[in-house]
Description:
Blueprint: H1 5-17, H2 29-42, H3 51-65, H4 68-80, H5 85-93, H6 96-99, H7 101-117, H8 135-147, H9 150-154, H10 160-179, H11 186-199, H12 203-216, H13 220-234, H14 236-247
Helix pairs in contact: 1-2, 3-4, 3-5, 3-11, 3-13, 4-7, 5-7, 8-10, 11-12, 11-13, 12-14, 13-14
Amino acid sequence: xxxxxxxxxxxxxxxxxxxxxxxxxxxxxxxxxxxxxxxxxxxxxxxxxxxxxxxxxxxxxxxxxxxxxxxxxxxxxxxxxxxxxxxxxxxxxxxxxxxxxxxxxxxxxxxxxxxxxxxxxxxxxxxxxxxxxxxxxxxxxxxxxxxxxxxxxxxxxxxxxxxxxxxxxxxxxxxxxxxxxxxxxxxxxxxxxxxxxxxxxxxxxxxxxxxxxxxxxxxxxxxxxxxxxxxxxxxxxxxxxxxxxxxxx
Length: 249
């Protein structure tokens, strides 16, 4: 017999969190049931994304939104479904150039609390693959492959003494410091960044990173499935706007 929506959400919830959903005693059981059925009964069945990737996307969305209680739960779920601590850490670190360091530090603190509770030794292994002498060259290579020279052209009207340091700062900090790290590959990082940008409604960057994703190996169908996965966490307006951008590329 085909699984019902209720069967799907209860089984997926158990896979992720280790127990079946329990609404008894909840102050708002109706809302929780709607939420759980939508996320785990509906959305997890849409598109060809594996559960490990879905949970990394969720970790990024909750980090961006500073939904730290929910982040705590989903860091645990990401571990349970098979993600390494290193992959989870890198997913959160990768948010820094796009949402700033203060919010990333908050998310990292929450992540580390979960790791400590699960007796995962901290700090995790270092993942840097560049040093001061190589970060710029490596960053230029990755950025150029995905985006060409668009950043410099975009700000061509800025005074050169401001434009050139800005372009180098983005290349070195975003691509040199983060995209070069071990733990996630470029294709994964691009998709996680794309989802984080959707969560903050950065439409111009969404279009740019959709193209970058396709150059990195993520198909249009993968991008659309990832957007749909985002909707319960960010709402339909941001999700539908992003789908329209990707559809029209």
